[in-house]
Amino acid sequence: MTEIVRKVSDLRASVARWHGAGDTVGLVPTMGALHAGHLSLVRAAQADCARVIATIFVNPKQFNNPTDLAKYPRTEPADLALLQQAGVDVLFAPPPEEVYPLGFATTVSVAGVAGPLEGASRPGHFDGVATVVAKLFGMSRADRAYFGQKDWQQLQVVRRMVADLNLPITVIGCETLREGDGLAMSSRNTRLSPRARAIAPALYAAMTRAASDLRAGKTGALKTCAATVLAAGFDSIDYIDLRDADSLEPLTAPTSTARLLAAAWLDGVRLIDNIPV
Ligand code: AMP
Prior knowledge:
By secondary structure, the protein is α/β, with parallel strands linked by helices. It has 2 domains: 3-174, HUPs (Rossmann fold, 3-Layer(aba) Sandwich); 187-276, Pantoate--beta-alanine Ligase, Chain: A,domain 2 (2-Layer Sandwich). Helix content is 40%, strand content 19%. It is built from 11 helices and 9 strands. Bound molecules: adenosine monophosphate.
């Protein structure tokens, strides 16, 4: 039976009880509208930890676009049913005022790795992410936290923050789950029209081709990739870039730790993806 918890004090009480019994506690932070990708993080957490907390909090601080925040899908009853089925111990779904009470005045800001790509396209986004993730770690006192590689840069930002602030938690990055046609699962996919949904897999397909072109040393692989994505029907591209997987510094040619990262707009929805090269 998954218990719904809204208050930090109640979450703390459960975790203290579990820790008292010697149980390891895993945390799976989400913004809800759960899909199989989220559930794969839950399964990874359950494989390592005796107790698992999933969190659902649509964090206003990480949305630089108010329309995106307003349109973000909210499906708590369906999410709870999925978490019940998966056997999650606690769903922590606090109201905004529990996370950001009156007088809240602290921002966690990660430099370097948070700067380019999503950081450049969405000013303030990673400050919001780092702040809420630091809070979720502090509120829960979990031992391990599970994040998707789907949000590759976010994973690196969280890793940097945990190392820099000596936070007592282990961060685990889990593989991206995809639909049968290659589209990375995302809560935002539900906002695509049927026509756009048919176009959307072109991003991953073009990226996969570009990765193989890059490995083969072909010139112009990134330009070809962008042209292919636009020709498939995407409206615009924020970036398609080859970067070092850990530092996110730009690369001109593949290395043993190269990653291709992309963000593009389709039907008013911003899709992101990334793959190793
Ligand atoms: P979100 O609810 O979109 O903020 O995502 C919550 C967590 O689920 C993040 O760590 C994401 O990286 C992860 N996630 C989202 N989509 C996927 C996916 N397709 N595969 C694996 N993890 C994912």
